[in-house]
């Protein structure tokens, strides 16, 4: 199968517009063949901008289109489960925007749909394919800073528009789901383990109902700890530091949303006082994610992070939110 797989885009969401549609169009194994919106006018304008040949005025029409091979789902968090499950039941593999869904219960329902239909659903935490983070993890596995004792991550973003879906309780918004999920995913990615204990505090959004900023502390096996801070309304920050028994590693810029256009550094300090800056290659992790999932659908690759991993991360996020006082 050397032909390009045909993607359908489930809505004209900003992340589809700025990230995944350009990435898919640039990929080696896929093209965007159709876009759907509940507004045919929005779908038509989006299609014209990105040179997409087909538009649909409903999500249902996209899922039943026989000329679509797989789906990218960038709908609001609270709609991820319903439409990803419906896509799987229609036989369409789904690359679902992060977080996988609203909570662990919905995640289990999505996993059950995968088991029942045999159709893959993948969570689009693209940072796990970027050389920056793969190299950082390899350095830890190679023991360059000894035994890892602590991970700390930060992910902050601007934005205070009260109409933004990130601040909608009904659509499963909030800083934990939008930003903090990256941090818990990163901890699990770097440590290769699940947390045993979770604590958290938060600041509620002025309109109420969702976490505006949140800080969490997690205890992992063998006494390893991890902490993170996330939130809105402050300058963009995305970084992490790992402390080991023999040194320290830091990814000072980019981290979970690494640059697509320039090399980025890993900073390494060893026990003897030496400092090393390791530059990592330029890569578009959105394109890498799209290409990997298309390879999975073609049957030429195995999904690196199956839905069970996404379910586990959603369970951790549930525990963090519960600890912070959000049911």
Which tags fit this structure?
Rossmann fold; eight-stranded mixed β-sheet; 34% helix; 327 residues
Layout of SSEs?
Blueprint: E1 5-10, H1 14-26, E2 30-36, H2 40-50, E3 54-56, H3 59-63, E4 70-73, H4 80-89, E5 94-96, H5 104-117, E6 121-123, H6 131-141, E7 148-157, H7 175-191, E8 197-204, E9 211-219, E10 225-232, E11 237-244, E12 247-251, E13 264-270, E14 275-280, H8 285-298, H9 307-323
Parallel strand pairs: 1-2, 1-4, 2-3, 4-5, 5-6, 7-10
Antiparallel strand pairs: 7-11, 8-9, 9-10, 11-12, 12-13, 13-14
Describe the structure.
- The protein is 34% helix and 27% strand.
- It has 327 residues and is an alpha/beta fold.
- It has two domains: 5-124 and 287-302, Rossmann fold; 127-283, Dihydrodipicolinate Reductase, domain 2, CATH 3.30.360.10.
- The strands form two sheets. The chain has an eight-stranded mixed sheet. A six-stranded parallel sheet has the order 3-2-1-4-5-6, with helices on both faces.
- The chain is globular, with a radius of gyration of 20 Å.
- The mean pLDDT is 95.
Helical segment count: 9
Q: What portion of residues belong to β-strands?
A: 25-35%
Provide the CATH architecture of the largest domain: 2-Layer Sandwich
Secondary-structure-based class equals alpha/beta
Output the radius of gyration: 20 Å
Shape: globular
Gap from first CA to last CA = 47 Å
Biggest sheet strand line-up: 8-9-10-7-11-12-13-14
CATH class of the largest domain: Alpha Beta
CATH fold-level name of the largest domain: Dihydrodipicolinate Reductase, domain 2
Helix content: 25-40%
């Amino acid at each position: 199968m050397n032909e390009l797989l045909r993607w359908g885009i489930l809505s004209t969401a900003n992340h589809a517009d700025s990230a995944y549609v350009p990435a898919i169009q640039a990929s080696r194994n896929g093209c965007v063949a159709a876009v759907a919106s509940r507004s045919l006018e929005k779908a038509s304008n989006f299609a014209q901008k990105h040179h997409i040949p087909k538009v649909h005025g409903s999500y249902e029409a996209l899922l039943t289109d026989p000329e679509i091979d797989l789906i990218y789902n960038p709908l609001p968090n609270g709609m991820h489960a319903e439409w990803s499950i419906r896509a799987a039941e229609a036989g369409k593999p789904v690359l679902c925007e992060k977080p996988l869904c609203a909570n662990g219960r919905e995640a289990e329902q999505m996993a059950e749909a995968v088991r029942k239909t045999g159709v893959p659903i993948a969570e689009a935490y693209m940072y796990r394919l970027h050389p920056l983070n793969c190299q950082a993890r390899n350095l830890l596995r190679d023991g360059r800073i000894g035994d890892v004792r602590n991970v700390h991550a930060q992910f902050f973003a601007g934005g205070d528009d009260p109409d933004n879906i990130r601040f909608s309780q009904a659509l499963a918004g909030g800083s934990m789901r939008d930003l903090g999920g990256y941090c818990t995913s990163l901890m699990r990615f770097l440590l290769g383990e699940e947390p045993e204990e979770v604590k958290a505090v938060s600041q509620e959004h002025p309109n109420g109902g969702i976490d505006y900023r949140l800080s969490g502390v997690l205890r992992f096996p063998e006494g390893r700890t991890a902490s993170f801070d996330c939130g809105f309304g402050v300058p963009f920050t995305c970084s992490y530091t790992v402390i080991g028994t023999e040194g320290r590693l830091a990814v000072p810029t980019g981290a979970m949303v690494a640059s697509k256009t320039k090399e980025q550094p890993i900073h390494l300090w060893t026990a003897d006082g030496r400092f090393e800056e390791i530059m990592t290659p330029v890569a578009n992790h959105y394109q890498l994610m799209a290409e990997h999932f298309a390879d999975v659908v073609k049957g030429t690759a195995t999904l690196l992070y199956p839905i069970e991993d996404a379910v586990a991360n959603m369970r951790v996020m549930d525990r963090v939110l519960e600890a912070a006082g959000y049911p």
